[in-house]
What we know:
The complex is a heterodimer of chains A (378) and B (781).
Chain A: E1 4-11, E2 15-16, H1 27-42, E3 49-55, H2 67-74, E4 82-86, H3 92-105, E5 111-119, H4 134-139, H5 147-157, H6 162-181, E6 192-194, E7 197-199, H7 211-215, E8 236-246, H8 247-252, E9 259-268, H9 277-289, E10 298-301, H10 306-316, H11 329-332, H12 336-353, E11 358-365, E12 369-376
Helix pairs in contact in A: 1-2, 3-12, 5-10
Chain B: E1 8-11, H1 15-26, E2 31-35, H2 46-57, H3 66-69, E3 72-76, E4 89-92, H4 98-111, E5 117-120, H5 127-131, H6 136-140, E6 142-147, E7 156-161, H7 167-180, E8 184-187, H8 196-214, H9 218-225, H10 237-243, H11 247-258, H12 273-280, E9 293-296, E10 303-307, E11 314-316, H13 323-342, H14 346-369, H15 373-384, H16 390-397, H17 399-408, H18 415-423, E12 427-430, E13 433-437, E14 443-445, H19 455-461, E15 466-467, E16 471-477, E17 480-485, H20 494-510, E18 513-516, H21 529-537, H22 541-559, E19 565-574, H23 576-582, E20 586-596, H24 610-619, H25 629-640, H26 648-653, E21 662-664, H27 670-682, E22 692-693, H28 698-713, H29 719-732, E23 743-744, H30 745-760, H31 763-775
Parallel strand pairs in B: 1-2, 1-4, 2-3, 4-5, 5-6, 7-8, 17-18, 18-19, 19-20, 20-21
Antiparallel strand pairs in B: 6-7, 9-10, 10-11, 12-13, 13-14, 15-16, 16-17, 22-23
Helix pairs in contact in B: 1-2, 8-14, 8-15, 9-14, 13-14, 17-18, 20-22, 21-31, 22-23, 22-30, 24-25, 25-29, 28-29, 29-30
Amino acid sequence: MSNVVIxxxxxxxxxxxxxxxxxxVRPDELAAQVVKGLLERTKADPAGIEDLxxxxxxxEGEQGFNIGRILGFLAGLPRTVAGATVNRxxxxxxxxxxxxxxxxxxxxxxxxxxxxxxxxxxxxxxxFNPMPHPALAKDYPQAFMSMxxxxxxxxxxxKIDRATQExxxxxxxxxxxxAQSAGKxxxxxxxxLDGNANVSQDGCIRADTTRAGLAxxxxxxxxxxxxxxGTSSPLTDGAAAVLVCSEDYAKKNGLEPLARxxxxxxxxxxxxxxxxxxVHSTQKALDRAGVKLKDIDVIELNEAFAAQSLAVIExxxxxxxxxxxxxxxxxxxxxxxxxxxxxxxxxAALLKREKKRYxxxxxxxxxxxxxxxxxxxx
Amino acid sequence: xxxxxxxVAVIGAGVMGAGxxxxxxxxxxxxxxxxxxxxDAANRNVLAEKAVAQLLKADPAPFMSKRAAKLVTPGNLExxxxxxxxxxxxxxxxxxxxxxxxxxxxxxxxxxxxGSVVSSNxxxxxxxxxIEGQPKAFAADxxxxxxxNPPRYMRLLETVAGPDTRADAVAAIRDFADRMLGKTVIPCxxxxxxxxxxxxxxxxxxxxxxxxxxxxAVEDADAVLGRPMxxxxxxxxxxxxxxxxxxxxxxxxxxxxxxxxxxxLNGVLxxxxxxxxxxxxxxxxxxxxxxxYRLDRSGGAKTKLAIDLKTGQYRPQRKADxxxxxxxxxxxxxxxxxxxxxxxxxxxxxxxKVMSATLSYAAELAPEIAASIEDVDAAMRLGYNWKxxxxxxxxxxxxxxxxxxxxxxxxxxxxxIARAAAEGGFYKVEGGQLQTLAFAGGRRAVKRPEGVLxxxxxxxxxKRITGNGSASVWDLGDGVLCFEVHTKLNTIDRDVLMLLGQxxxxxxxxxxxxVIYNEGSNFSAGANLGIALFAANVSLWNEIENMVxxxxxxxxxxRHARFPTVAASSGLALGGGxxxxxxxxxxxxxxxxxxxxxxxxxxxxxxxxxxxxxxRRWGTSPKMPKGPMPPVAKTFETVGTATVxxxxxxxxxLMFLGPQDGITMNRDRLLADAKAKAxxxxxxxxxxxxxxxxxxxxxxxxxxxxxxxxxxxSGKAMPHDETVAASLATVLSGGDxxxxxxxxxxxxxxxxxxxxxxxxxxxxxxxxxxSILVTGKPLRN
Lengths: 378, 781
């Protein structure tokens, strides 16, 4: 059986939705530039790509028309490369990589581009036409519960107070700001051209974030709650992509793999505490890899909310020093469909940069799910 | 000949300069805002850029729309002088220092295009001094244009032309200011303070001095000088707190320096020590640490304090309680003011002292500072927000009574007042024409600017065609009828709706079009809630449902009339008033129209077709994404939060006004524009067909409920808001419909009616209505 590797990672800058520098860039254009950038960097032969799989949480409007196929045209891929869109909300583009990994193992292709995109400026969260099942909404409202409220549920269930959440957010910004100023993020970022403008820097990171500053914010979701805008990931515009291929293909084509995909998993949980999703999916992925959590050296845990991340950390007893070395989504932003590819690519890149053996990338998913990938150094 | 003004520059980015620039932008004209480069500034445009940032934050908003804000280009006087060559009008609004202005004019003269107009916004310096030493070519293109603060909202523009100023330059500015900026342009003679400030500053100074001398409390002084005199209720001390106490010594000093020694202003200067001390201590009014009034927040609770004019110490504020105020209330609209001025208590004596001096001053000065009596009145109305100008107030009091009082005091009776007393008042209507006393003797007709049509003039000339206690119908000529509402705040009651229905039936008999217009401050504050609450209190639910029905049917008739109907809005057009606009063929809106469906604030939803019309507008907007939800969500957001557009331009963005609806900048031109709009629609007019809607049904309601749930949990919505929102969601999502089906206008009206009736019976709704009627404040429950 073929081993599956991640042979490249690129992303756009992540900027605030509705006020950032990418507001006026269409999501299909944004993602196409990232795909092109990925191919240029890896020097992979486009003709060898089986499929372009694009994760997107709200695949409609400018993210519609099977954006996977549209990206192929925009990025100038040969017409022989297929294109698909997948939706697992925040886990969409990690799911894209999982699909590719499964296909490679099946012998159904050697190389895949697994991308993700979300312009939360241009396609609103919930989409243009939210039309929930009325009876389900009434009888089982948690199916549609707001993400903020699920974070509040975890905060109270795990007794995570506001100060602890704020501390976590401050650290996320500090790590991201340090990585940014050290130029560590530049290696992954593809500059986005918008007319004459060239967007090359992340826009959400705030180096001057302080506990005192965050303490002044009002609770965003529950009047007497603890979760604020400062301890939540911001609405973000962005795209990310990874090149997933068989180890043999990488060797044969002179590609430089970052890491091997050791195992994958998804899981479901109660939707009202969707943020705990990574716990079960991580356990499943670790079991499948035959690796213990203590053996994992690098963890990318998506920070949908500080409360949610802290609940997962507590439940799995993760070592905070291993988590999100260059900052997480609270600082960087969380363009829903793009995040999975970002943290997977980031975990692979960190494994190589830090010269470690095992990495874990995991995230929670609205509706009550988790997704996890275990990576191994080559 | 000066070409049309298509680009403007404002020099000086202070409060006035920036405000003027914003208002030029409101007219849709690009404007360059320049100021000096501060020493060692890294950003050379810093002053103008800061001013624009300040404008965007200011409340009330200087800009009418976001689009307008983009028309202001900040710059500086060193790098951008060259750009002045593109400008047709250059407005100088720099500090009131003659030398600085004169030096600047030299630079402007070198940079500007020949034939462009330069004007100064000076408030006190005579034109003759400004142009001294300037070349003839400059003087020919120069005038004074004095705006009042804030420039967007104050309708007065005083102009002064010099002997050398080109007539066509004056005409071009006058026309632009009138039609584009919406100003009432009052030509003034070249005297210090022109008209508004000359009289206004005298009044303020007289009021301060008399208060200190008489020992009257500031609350009492403001209570008698405010509403009873037709002056804003801030009176004099509240006004000083508002504009900044530190401003007045500068203006007074500058006036005293330029006025002749025998000017009466010198007689009311009084003892300045209290004000000097207040300024020294930072007590400059609302912008400072407090003023004559102060809000004390120490100790948690808010306590209103007022200053004791004798000791200069603050003490708790108290409500004015004076015999003279009771006399004012008892005297009613006609006799109240005179009754107050006649009382011998401290309030009556104080008010008489201040007002008799001010009105005499105005009468003595008028021929020297203005072209006519009505110009003086207009200046005080539009520049100081007096309800009546000095001569209108004198007419109200009776010039003979006033002259007798002066004589009894042993004071001189100004010649104009003596004439008015002898000739039956300053104003008179003769043969349907309003006339005033001419300075030169005799009477002259009050002339309106060309193209201005006022209902008050039509009323003088003609009899109303029909009417009742709430509304009237007038003939505007050329086949156009005018429907006028004249209730309190122009609220809509049964009589208004009945007469509107009858009028719609009447128009086709002999007329071509209908204009809905009134000359009050507001188009309409909405349905008359008092009647609704009364009916609810005695459980006359049928009565309320009949009103809902009557409103729906009348507005439907308005929308589907076979002739064009044009509603001319100005001021508030809320609730049922807004729905009247929504059902007219077209709207001609004064730029200062504040339009919104605010029903949820009183616990109900729009019931006269407002939901139906907003759904149609958003549903047919090319800007909306496809699918059944976007128009529903947008309407829900606008109506569910009782959003009120803060200008006609904003009302277009919110779809209360359609793309074809017109905006008139000058309030006095609104009726003429509405009439012209109605006539332009006559030829080939076809009423709109009933709309057919595709709405989401229960799934839409579920989606909206999720959003409201979030607002409720985060504390942004109150419990009753959720109830009201659920009803609104039922109507907007189309009840039990399915996205594969269609919904008719009648279906939506039936939903509106059913949900309205459900809500109006709710005790929390009735509590909201009662709160608005009793306290004027919305209740959050």
